[in-house]
Amino acid sequence: MTTPTFDDLSPGVIVEGPILPEPVEVVTTVPMGTSIKLIGKGLQTGQLRDPILDTEQLAQLAITPKDLPFDGDPNHFKLGIEAERLGLAYEYDPYFSLSIARVDPLPHQLEAVYEYFLKLPRIRFLLADDPGAGKTIMAGLLLKELKIRGLVKRTLIVAPANLTFQWQREMKDKFREQFDVMRGEILRTQYGQNPWQERNQVVTSVSWISRVEDANESLLRSNWDLVIVDEAHKMSAYNVVNSMHRIVGEQLIDGFPIYKIKKYFERDHFIELTDKHVRETRLRYILLHLVYVQQFGTGPFDVRFKGNSPHIDHIYPQHGLKVHLGLPTSEVNSIGNYRFVGATDNIRKRAEQPASYFQRLKNAGIQIEKHLLLADESANPALLSWDEQIYREFRDRRLDRILNIASGVVNVETTMDNQEN
After folding, report:
1. Is the pTM of this model over 0.85?
2. What are phi and psi of 389, to 5 degrees?
3. Does 161 lie in the same domain as 308?
4. Is 151 in the same domain as 194?
């Protein structure tokens, strides 16, 4: 393309530039003193375009001659042809991505990708194999093949926190694919923007996006062509429920087995405690027990006291929530409204309201924050008033606090992320 003059605007040439809404094919021109009126047809809309241009505006336009001169850079032309050829290579070479990847795949890996993933008309696949069988390589080969075919541009990888950088490294080293690890610091430094949408290839931690509200909400506002979930079975609460019940159900002589629960999460299975687990009704007694041990340094059952057996107590009495506020059982029996009462803790008097009960304990010198877990209500128990909105806000904030306390005990790999957020 060259910079046009008035004489270059002959019928049939195409001009484009920032002052035109679209490329325009010149039909005719009308001289107007030091300016010229261009009459042409928009190539995208077909609409009539008739701008009046002076010499400065004309200098901003680029012209494509009616008869192409074929005087372009031959190296650029060769690169363009080569790009087109590579874009169609998969039609002639069924294993084309192997020629541009740094891997030596095994037969079972090739079978999974090329005989099933690429041939079956499905949008979801579960790849289940033994540890060390090369599932990451299979995922990388699938990604390369889909990108070559032009089917995938934006890819999200969701993995356990301790594996995010491993995914980033293997995608870079083995497949020449650059992925960004999305963390709290990126989200904070780009306030008002959506960093998920601005990056086409991202690795992130399943525990971080499930716990941090801003990360979760901004992720849900983004669109992806391909999502890879590593260790997807650990997104279910089922394994965690059974394992924690098994650990707690063992005959132990040293009290609540918090160290064994910690080992289960951190060392044995590389899984994480998430919001889904905390909301699991079959785990709430164990988690409340864990929180009690963490807050008081001892278990509620470690001391036996006649007439005061350890038990679960509603902070807001369930009778009042149901009768006075008309709330259903599902809203009343929430872990956010539960606490463990130990053998040496003060029993609530019948029908005693939460504000007066916890104020009485506070006046007696009891650290009620270890029970309530929230600083504002612990400093001023009168905030625990009988109001539906206040109750719901208290219950939900306390639920988040229980998750943070429990996660801080068992999720060592993500403790840094939690502190950052």
Report:
1. no
2. -65, -40
3. no
4. yes
Under 8 Å CB-to-CB from 4, ≥6 apart: which residues?
13, 15, 58, 61, 62, 63
Which residue among 185, 206, 233 closes a domain? Answer: 233
Containing 14, the helix (H) or strand (E) segment is strand 14-16
Residue with tokens 């719901």: 392
Q: What is the DSSP string of 37-105?
A: EEEEEETTT--EE--EE-HHHHHT-EEE-SS----S-HHHHHHHHHHHHHHTGGGT-TTGGGGGSS---
The kind and range of the H/E element at 216 are helix 213-220
Contact 183, 416 (CB under 8 A): no
Residue 78 lies in a domain: no
Q: Domain tally for the chain?
A: 3
pLDDT tens digits, 359-403: 999 999 999 999 999 999 999 999 999 899 999 999 999 999 998
Q: Is 266 found in the same domain as 404?
A: yes
Query: How far is CA 407 from each of CA 57, 228, 243, 275, 336, rounded to the nearest angstrom?
Result: 63, 24, 16, 9, 15
Q: Is residue 245 part of a domain?
A: yes
* More confident: 179 or 21: 179
Whether residue 134 contacts residue 109, with contact meaning beta carbons closer than 8 Å, is answered with yes
Question: Under the phi-then-psi rule, with left for phi > 0, alpha for psi from -120 to 50, and beta for the rest, what region is 134?
Answer: left
Q: Are 303 and 344 in contact (CB under 8 A)?
A: yes
Contacts of 136 (CB under 8 A, 6+ apart): 167, 170, 230
Per-residue model confidence (pLDDT) at position 252: 63
Q: Which residues partner with 38 through β-bridges?
A: 29
**CA nearest 313: which of 279, 259, 352, 274?**
352
Q: Over 285-339, what HEC string results? A: HHHHHHHHHHHHCCCCCCCCCCCCCCEEEECCCHHHHHHCCCCCHHHHCCHHHEE
Q: Does residue 57 lie in a domain region?
A: yes
State the distance between the two ends of the chain, measured CA to CA, in whole angstroms. Answer: 52
Containing structural domain, residue 28: 6-64
Q: Are residues 404 and 263 in the same domain?
A: yes
Q: In CATH, what number is assigned to the domain containing residue 141?
A: 3.40.50.10810
pLDDT in tens, 14-65: 888 888 989 999 999 999 888 999 899 988 888 899 999 888 888 888 888 7
DSSP state of 2: B
Same domain, 187 and 303: no
> What ranges in 367-414 are assigned the alpha helix state H?
369-372, 375-379, 388-410
Query: Under 8 Å CB-to-CB from 418, ≥6 apart: which residues?
Result: 211, 404, 407, 408, 411
